[in-house]
């Protein structure tokens, strides 16, 4: 099998209101399951919004948010991806992207590398330093988080190893055009699908307009959401990625790591 049906939850996140957000996420997950999603994706820090209140948002791997995600995955028999603030064994806090499989097992963790210093994230959390990948139905994925989208180097680093990149975000409407352009740019330059999952609503003085999309390896928008709470469903087909790269072999001509100097 070379296809994965993704369902992106474009949700209105209540700032520092996890109970409300769990309820919204559960309702959207049920919708995604009815639409036969293989992979259900929630926005960045879906349980609390983009809060630096570490006493509220930080959890261990056995905390309520990862347990909630595990239960969604096993209940609806679909992969579930999201992010939450994880406290590691050394007491450091990370904005952690996670993926649970259909049986509720944790199969993937990614600690956000680029922390949003204008919002105080770099003072509250610690950055990651690795870019792992994961696979569903033979389709290869990488997961990034919000501000990472502005740094093409990490996308290029794993471009040959993946068919699709997922970006979960709390991206404000004041920079909506940047979100729209950068998602398409990352897809085009790496000849891969880009799934952008953003939130909507108002939170901590900011307005969020959504704009969740699935972009094809050629840069075409094949599924999108308006600025309302909704489920975005799209299909990722690794055979299309292979055909795109064979027809126009950009990545084969890449010269990174070959001793090229300025």
Detailed description of the structure:
It contains 7 helices and 15 strands. It has one domain: Nitrilase/N-carbamoyl-D-aminoacid amidohydrolase, CATH 3.60.110.10. The chain is 26% helix and 31% strand. The strands form 3 sheets. Strands 1, 2, 3, 4, 5, 6 and 15 form a 7-stranded mixed sheet that branches. The C terminus is likely disordered. Helix 1 packs parallel to helix 3. By secondary structure, it is α/β, with parallel strands linked by helices. It is globular, with a radius of gyration of 17 Å.
Which second-level CATH architecture applies? 4-Layer Sandwich
Overall pLDDT confidence = 95
Summarize the main sheet: 7 strands, mixed
* Count of helix runs: 7
Number of strands: 15
Classified by CATH, the class is Alpha Beta
* Structural category: alpha/beta
Helix content: 25-40%
Strand content: 25-35%
CATH-defined fold name: Nitrilase/N-carbamoyl-D-aminoacid amidohydrolase
Q: pLDDT below 50 for ≥5 consecutive residues: which ranges? A: 258-262
CATH superfamily annotation: Carbon-nitrogen hydrolase
The helix/strand order is EHEHEHEEEHEEHEHEEEEEEH
Taking Cα atoms only, what radius of gyration do you get, to the nearest Å?
17 Å
- Characterize the overall form: globular
Distance between the termini: 43 Å
């Amino acid at each position: 099998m070379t296809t994965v049906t993704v369902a992106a939850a474009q949700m209105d996140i209540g700032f520092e209101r996890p109970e409300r957000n769990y309820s919204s996420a559960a309702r959207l997950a049920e919708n995604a399951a009815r639409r036969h999603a293989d992979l259900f994706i929630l926005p960045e820090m879906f349980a609390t919004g983009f809060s630096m209140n570490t006493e509220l948002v930080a959890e261990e791997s056995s905390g309520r948010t990862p347990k909630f995600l595990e239960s969604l995955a096993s209940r609806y028999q679909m992969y579930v991806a999201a992010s939450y603030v994880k406290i590691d064994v050394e007491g450091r806090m990370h904005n952690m992207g996670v993926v649970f499989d259909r049986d509720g097992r944790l199969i993937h963790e990614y600690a956000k590398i680029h922390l949003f210093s204008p919002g105080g994230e770099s003072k509250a959390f610690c950055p990651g330093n690795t870019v792992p990948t994961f696979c569903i139905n033979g389709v290869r994925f990488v997961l990034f988080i919000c501000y990472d989208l502005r740094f093409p180097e990490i996308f290029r680093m794993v471009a040959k190893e993946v068919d699709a990149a997922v970006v979960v975000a709390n991206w404000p409407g004041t920079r909506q055009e940047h979100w729209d352009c950068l998602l398409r740019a990352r897809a085009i330059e790496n000849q891969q699908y880009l799934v952008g999952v953003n939130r909507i609503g108002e939170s901590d003085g900011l307005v969020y307009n959504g704009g969740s999309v699935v972009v094809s390896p050629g840069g075409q928008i094949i599924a999108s959401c308006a600025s309302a709470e909704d489920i975005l469903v799209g299909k990722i087909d690794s055979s299309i990625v292979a055909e795109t790269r064979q027809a126009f072999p950009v990545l084969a001509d890449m010269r990174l790591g070959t001793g090229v100097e300025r």
